[in-house]
Amino acid sequence: MSSSRSTTTANEVPPEHSTSREPHRAASATTTSRPAAQVVDAVKVYGSGDTAVRALDGVSVAFPAGRFTAIMGPSGSGKSTLMHCAAGLDTLTSGSALIGDTDLSSLDDRRLTLLRRDRIGFVFQAFNLVPTLTVAENITLPIDLAGGRGDPEWVDALVDVVGLRDRLHHRPAELSGGQQQRVAVARAFAGRPDVVFADEPTGNLDSRSGEEVLGLLGRAVRETERTVVMVTHDPVAAAHADEVVFLADGRLVDRMEAPTPDKVLDRMKAFEVRS
Ligand SMILES: Nc1ncnc2c1ncn2[C@@H]1O[C@H](COP(=O)(O)OP(=O)(O)OP(=O)(O)O)[C@@H](O)[C@H]1O
């Protein structure tokens, strides 16, 4: 693990040390093999005895910093379980999950909560916005809950990335589904997290709004040097990623660079043929 860390050269600035404050003006994503998140020999067993389900069966996968990775696989293959364990929302039965250098199993509940708050962003299928707060307040909610000031310039620039400047004082109910998910995306990135985990982020959206949100996630990765890991069952959505990793029966079975919807669909069809 540590041997693959930091491939940046002397004149490159690692993303987390970048002095750029504005997403629009950040340099393009640094190519690096440094993992923002990873799991090693991950095993997750739900239940016990006859009813035990081995949802993850020895998965090792790294999610490189500054990249957009999609997790795909048939229903029940372990996608959500992998994401939840990698993000510290659930614990592994054995193996390890790391955010940067931090092994999540070494943290007590309080420190794990702080790590999730400070270093991870989440986007879920349900937008999970607070209905009584304005768009602006929803975006800065994680920062406000943390009692910090955050980085006002960063948040301000994010508002432009997600195209919500003219909606800042509206409430979620006054927005379309796509706009609400864009608020959720801005909120996920507001605290400059090391990695944003997105679980079926377009599941509740029509295809046009979905495309907008996916384009936004891609832009956020490229323009703000962040890392996104997205679970999806949609080949079109997965094709927005830099790389797709495929799970089947709780195992990592394939990886695909530069995915296209057709290539991803063909790969998924191979699973159906086999089952
Ligand atoms: N809390 C749980 N208790 C028991 N079994 C579970 C639990 N959560 C998931 N499982 C099982 O673990 C396996 C993997 O589930 P998981 O939700 O990770 O798959 P998935 O690939 O995300 O599926 P889908 O695409 O249908 O959402 C499935 O067999 C599922 O039934």
UniProtKB/TrEMBL annotation:
Region (Disordered): 1-34
Segments of skewed composition (Basic and acidic residues): 14-25
SUPFAM superfamilies with a match to the protein in the record: P-loop containing nucleoside triphosphate hydrolases
InterPro entries per record: AAA+_ATPase, ABC_transporter-like_ATP-bd, ABC_transporter-like_CS, ABC_transpr_LolD-like, MacB-like_ATP-bd, P-loop_NTPase
Composition-biased stretches (Polar residues): 1-11
Gene3D superfamilies found in the cross-reference section: P-loop containing nucleotide triphosphate hydrolases
One Pfam family of this chain: ABC_tran
Protein name per Swiss-Prot or TrEMBL: ABC transporter ATP-binding protein
